Amino acid sequence: MVAARPRRRGSDPLRRTEDGPVTFVVHGQAVSRGIAIGRAVIVASSRLDVAHYFVTGDQVGAEIDRLRRARDEVADEIVRLQQGLAVQGANDAHPELAALLDVHLMLLQDEQLTSGVKHWIVERHYNAEWALTSQLEVIARQFDEMEDPYLRERKADLEQVVERVLRVMRGVASPVAAPSGPRPTGPQDVGSEAPLVLIAHDLSPADMLQFKQSVFAGFVTDVGGKTSHTAIVARSMDIPAVVGARSASHLIQQDDWVIIDGDAGVVVVEPSAVLLAEYGFKQRQGEVERERLSRLKNTPAVTLDGQKIELLANIEQPGDAVAALKAGAVGVGLFRTEFLFMGRNGKLPDEEEQYEAYRRAVEGMQGLPVTIRTVDVGADKPLDRGVRSGDDHLNPALGLRAIRWSLADPAMFLAQLRAILRAAAHGAVNLLVPMLAHAHEIRQTLALVARAREQLDARGQVYGQVRLGAMIEIPAAALTVPLFLRHFDFLSIGTNDLIQYTLAIDRADEAVAHLYDPVHPAVLQLLASTIAQCRAQGKGVSVCGEMAGDVAMTRLLLGLGLRSFSMHPSQVLAVKQQILRSDTVRLQTWAQSVLAAEDPAALMTD
Ligand code: PEP
Ligand code: MG
User: Fold this and answer.
1) CA 77 to centroid of ligand 2, rounded, Å
2) How far is the CA of 594 from the centre of ligand 1 (A)?
3) Exposed e or buried b for every residue in 351-373, given b needs 16+ CB within 10 A?
4) In this predicted model, what pLDDT tens digit does every residue of 420-460 receive, in sequence order?
């Protein structure tokens, strides 16, 4: 077997020899601002559900023992299987099965696998599962590069063997508890001082939830667009990230030094000392800028001509309320509840669990309003394998997603509605419905909300009043705004999907990312007319897509009459800074010229 130890390099990236590694650059989509500099950890997304944490020096021995015990247990299991085959005489009947078990045993006991894993634990203080999957990535790459198809296929055997060891370890918890609470930035009392950055082919939103608790300082994926949900969660974590970097996970190797420039969408691999110094400087500048912006937290968001602007936060989990308040948001404009439904091995949260989560978000916002959106799974937000969520169809973005999924399972939807209504007894709650397009969907949804109230009444359970809102994110909805205004108290424009569906561009597909254009005249027409109609009727309207948090769009949206923006907490202060410098009277005239232009993008820098 060809298996290599992880490459050992000096821990100081500035100490480079003339024949040292070559610098190269990978381009992708800039999704989350800032610079991260660290060592690459290559992780297959399926292995992200393995815990990633650091053990301390005196726990290293116990961690190696835990791994050894799991490996021995799997070896015993394989030997027992072999003996079983021998007794049944199946060795002769299925010689390939017996041979396969031999291969598995050999792979399991391979000295290089074992010593490689030991390296990650001893030198880097990775927990055993992380060490094992790191070494698996190293070896799997070598299999990929093999000429011989027979040997190449042994990669699958290796993965199976490692999976068996992981399964045994899952039953034997680490004596070292995985840290909870704030994400550590790197190994504290361990040998390596460098932060770690994650490089993966793909990360699902469920992976990202896992990732939120992890130690990584930034990430790069091969696939994904700027408004893919993976990118959105990265933004919520406020760590530098680049998606759609094509073959980054093949080009970058375990342990490479990597700079992630989340502003430019650039990944620099094995940077020279000069580049490291340059990006280090940029990184510090970014920190100074954030510090400067943080002083705006308590400044009211009012334009030069006295227009008061509402800045709200988008959140994914109840705990994100802390970041929303810290950023000075005046409420939550979008709580994406689907994140409560994902990564749970098929077990959806029941009414009680949801109620607790919504109540925590409401209480966390300390009296400020919280807009809870009903579940929007499907498309690039699958639940888990084996659970119906509409993502297993040919065009999942056009399939059983969001409200369509909810209406297809009224019992599930009613449980969510009851949970939201009950949470509304604890503070101001708005209930927002995604992806509506048809009048009959509106009628069914409202009937189910009424039904949920009746059920709570029948149970004698306390619940609160909610304002009802609809998302405008399908062109059909944007073209029938009066229908929506007849039935709802407010509208929220989901520009991520509105752009996707107007331009027929998959928001998660990096291959067409260059065509994903927020200022396409058609998109602007839909936006402008939706805002204008809401304002004319005195109904609330906000934008909660990524456009609302993009400082390059703030002036245009103000000029189109928008007065309520909902975005990730990390973007609130930068958008506020733009608002403080804006005059809506002047912007209104300019916005009309942008709206009438053949090439609006050309006017955006005016
Ligand atoms: C949108 O589509 O703009 C939106 C806010 O919803 P999501 O990104 O969750 O699809
Ligand atoms: Mg949407």
Assistant:
1) 48
2) 24
3) beebbebbbbbbebbeebbbbbb
4) 999 999 999 999 999 999 999 999 999 999 999 999 999 99
